[in-house]
Amino acid sequence: MKALRIGIVGLGRGFMLTLPALRAHPRVEIAAAFDLRASPRAQFTREFGAKSYESLEGLLAADIDAVYIATPHELHATQAIAALGAGKHVLVEKPMAISVAECVAMEAAARRAGKLLLVGPSHGFDAPVRRAAELIASGGFGAVRQLTAMNFTDFMYRPRRPEELDSARGGGVVYSQAAHQIDVARRLVGRDVTFVRAVAGNWDSSRPSEGAYAAMMGFEGGAVASLTYSGYAHYDSDELVNWISELGREKDPEQYGDTRRALRNLEPATESAAKIRRAYGEDGASTSEPPAPYHEHFGFVLVSCERADLKLSPQGITLYGDEHREFLAIDPPSLPRVEVIDEFVEGALGLVQPIHDGRWGVKTVACCAALLESSRTGSEIAPTAMIIDTLEAVSV
Amino acid sequence: MKALRIGIVGLGRGFMLTLPALRAHPRVEIAAAFDLRASPRAQFTREFGAKSYESLEGLLAADIDAVYIATPHELHATQAIAALGAGKHVLVEKPMAISVAECVAMEAAARRAGKLLLVGPSHGFDAPVRRAAELIASGGFGAVRQLTAMNFTDFMYRPRRPEELDSARGGGVVYSQAAHQIDVARRLVGRDVTFVRAVAGNWDSSRPSEGAYAAMMGFEGGAVASLTYSGYAHYDSDELVNWISELGREKDPEQYGDTRRALRNLEPATESAAKIRRAYGEDGASTSEPPAPYHEHFGFVLVSCERADLKLSPQGITLYGDEHREFLAIDPPSLPRVEVIDEFVEGALGLVQPIHDGRWGVKTVACCAALLESSRTGSEIAPTAMIIDTLEAVSV
């Protein structure tokens, strides 16, 4: 059985969250890594007996088949294009990149190379989303007509690196968080987005980036999605999903305000360091936590089809039919994010046609860009038109 | 203390729901009634020792100061204009009427007569809405930025008269139900609506009218509201408000599907009759139910201000501040809808400046009309422009 030798680009928090699934996959070999920091490189070499590099060029020259890119958003495009150019399959964290033009260039590089470009993890991969999408696509409930999703988190007050709060560098909640919600909605509706109308909010001058939005997305065939998000750490919508956290763990509702209090007690100069402490190979971080008992999720998600509503939860799906209601339990995850690694490995080995490939990723980023553009201009934006305009600009 | 002698226009279900508050108000005298049906007229005369009429003209010639109009939507405008022309104050059920032009004519009639035109009951009057609006208006939480409201009910499958499912006659959920949600949102945000973008859905050909919608409303100052509604009797959002029904009573979640089953067992020819049985003076109806223990509500309502979120419930308001969360209990209602009768009586007697007057009502109906027009045309509609266009058409 042929294994995929994967090189890790960025030994940060993303890598830590995906590591259990990478490590456990029978067809994955964690073969090498690149990071600018010496400490996680040393830890990586100790833990995996594999070489680590202080440059991306070094990693790409190593004996690997693929890379997993888990670096800051603004580096995704350059790194992915370099890896594809070197003949590697690429798994890149969402957001795929921070502009439609970057995504188009990445997808073009993947086609030139004849290699897989997959965008994940995102909550569009979560098992309840996948199961609901399959049920909906089977047609038994009639067409999807409405989707209602909302998520209220403390995103804006977790320790952040400067670029994470800089809109010009893909900061704020749109590229980072709307990308999840849009992926979930697109996966469930199963059609292309025709328009986005949105208002994004920048409500706290001490954290000056978009921290909230309300968006309406129209789909081919007429379905409509209402997406609401706030990262301002007030209401917590995890109460609507049985007090299970985004990462599938039980959550204590009494810890209200903890994130903001912790940030208040942090010197501004040490905020980036506080984030790094949660990354791979650092003091505060552990890769030995037990796996989460529930599926990951992205808040309240309700899909209305003509003959039934479906409500997603970290434990399964509630089906609201004409006269009967039924809960479809979904077995707890073996490991978080295993669906992503499955899709990447099987896609790279040519065993399945992946869903979340570069074409998929361009469209989600186009929706994010349309969301911001709609908010800026006060008008409706067609994400497909943004992609076409970019393609024309590139071909000129 | 001067009392207001009120004549009832339409002894139906609306009258029954408002009757306890009318009867208990120290300044209200239920003085006369008009209905086309003999049986409720007889019941009315027995119960109140007051005269009832089989024509509106008869009622308007009686010794009354005001009327309460609780008839089918399409009759509101004609009846209100007649009553105002006869020098009576008018309380008219929502929707005020089923077109902007009708509403403009009603408001013009009120001004000519120098009488009060009040639109209610609607859930915009509910005590938690009022309290939250006052808290928000006091400014302590910063500006309102986002409002998220959703309500999933069985509206479309309750017994209906034919016009209630005929869009051309103001049927479907928009005039009947969006009018509530828009009133709630407008009251909480406290600013005029600048645009409506919406998709209304007509998903069941056996009940052919708009049964659901998703709407985005923008407000002066930049706030945005996301309003979602489905009356298709699948998911029930009362689970998000502690399983308390719209009318403030405890609800059994195990009665899933009952409304649709009951309708299925009804002969189509007897559906209107089934509705009438729930009206005043009919066998199945009772005016002696104990008052509801909780406030009325219109589903999930969350308001995001710059420095706090507020979540409404039938028991009070949860305030989600920066570091603390607090529940503001609101005393249970003495009687349902007493706020409406208070505002009407005090407004008619010149003691207060009413909020939900004809000017208010025109704007809510303009938002309903804009919602339908946006859905029909696929474009954003400014409700104010609809009012101005109507005024110009009238003045020509």
Structure, briefly:
Chain A has 396 residues and is α/β, with parallel strands linked by helices.
List keywords for this structure.
homodimer, 396 residues, GFO_IDH_MocA-like_dom (chains A, B), eight-stranded mixed sheet, alpha/beta, 35% helix, Gfo/Idh/MocA_Oxidoreductases (chains A, B), 12 helices, Dihydrodipicolinate Reductase, domain 2, Phthalate 4,5-cis-dihydrodiol dehydrogenase (chains A, B), phthalate 4,5-cis-dihydrodiol dehydrogenase activity (chains A, B), 14 strands, Rossmann fold
The residue-averaged pLDDT of chain A reads: 95
Strand order of the largest sheet of chain A: 8-9-10-7-11-12-13-14
Our count of helices of chain A gives 12
What is the oligomer described by this structure?
A: homodimer
Give the end-to-end Cα distance of chain A, rounded to a whole number of Å: 45 Å
Find the CATH topology of the largest domain in chain A. Answer: Dihydrodipicolinate Reductase, domain 2
Q: Major β-sheet of chain A, in short?
A: 8 strands, mixed
H and E string of chain A: EHEHEHEHEHEHEHEEEHHEEEEHHH
CATH superfamily of the largest domain in chain A: Dihydrodipicolinate Reductase, domain 2
Instruction: Specify Rg of chain A, calculated over alpha carbons.
Output: 20 Å
Percent helix among the residues of chain A? 25-40%
Low-confidence stretches of chain A: none
Portion in strands of chain A? 15-25%
Shape of chain A from CA axes? globular
- Estimate nothing, just give the exact number of structural domains of chain A: 2
What is the structural class of chain A? alpha/beta
